[in-house]
């Protein structure tokens, strides 16, 4: 009798016990892989965000508490986004250059409270403009690239002076990484990192974020002229290549789950630290599914986070960061 080519092969053997599944896991996730986005509000009150259940805008006075919470949970980095008061929004986004604006005050509060937690700041003008665009516009409502880059460069220096550890340009203007890197080097901020929103798509998943930063209803037109077409993948690789060449230390793909193929391509092509932003719409869908009884919130969350790591992410920006960190350390 001949011997079978594959005698008694059972792929299930290594899946039977929890210890064995952990032993052979190809992908791992820890709290150190998480970045926690936080919204900053003026005034003294915590402001729950209706379209992001469980997420709030925090007054500057409580940002230090959130930084200490991140430290205690093992989350290495927080990302700050402002809800700039309406009377401080303008056509030229001048409040972005105020060294005492919400973001700069929040950066100082976070670093004072937990200096060993990294702080990332958003470089873009949409939280500061009266028209909701990420840049300076002309009379025809066209976003002006080079004029915007000049303002973004000054904004980045203001944030670095306040103590930001990572500057994260999310505007998608051409050439802004090179300009910001040159300005950082020239102003003595040689060790400040840049995480480029390198492949940021013109997505339908950003709605709750616009509620959170107060820009919903302000936007004139759309952002398709500078954010990427969801149909394009090779273009994303060109965007990433440019940002790396211009001096980015990390690159980001945004949104996350609908663009796992882009994340994987970037990881395979460049070997650079690549991050995903699990954006507000993704967060809201998980919460809505759980509230409707369509799935367990924690299980849905952890499955999506491991998918990002499996695709090649070094880490993930997620509003679920404290929830995930508690699950991972429980």
Written description of the protein model:
The structure is a single chain. This protein is α/β, with parallel strands linked by helices. It has one domain: TIM Barrel. The protein contains 11 helices and 10 strands. The chain has an 8-stranded parallel barrel with strand order 1-4-5-6-7-8-9-10, surrounded by 9 helices. Strand 5, helix 4 and strand 6 form a beta-alpha-beta unit. 48% of the residues are buried.
Core attributes:
330 residues; alpha/beta; TIM Barrel; 8-stranded parallel barrel; 10 strands; globular
Output the CATH class name: Alpha Beta
Strand content: 15-25%
Question: Helix proportion of residues, in percent?
Answer: 25-40%
Round the Cα radius of gyration to an integer and report it.
Answer: 21 Å
Structural class by sheet pairing and helices: alpha/beta
Number of domains: 1
- Give the distance, in angstroms, between the N- and C-terminal Cα atoms: 53 Å
Q: What does the main sheet amount to?
A: 8 strands, parallel, barrel
Helix/strand order, N-terminal first: HEEEHEHEHEHEHHEHEHHEH
The CATH topology turns out to be TIM Barrel
Instruction: Name the overall outline.
Output: globular
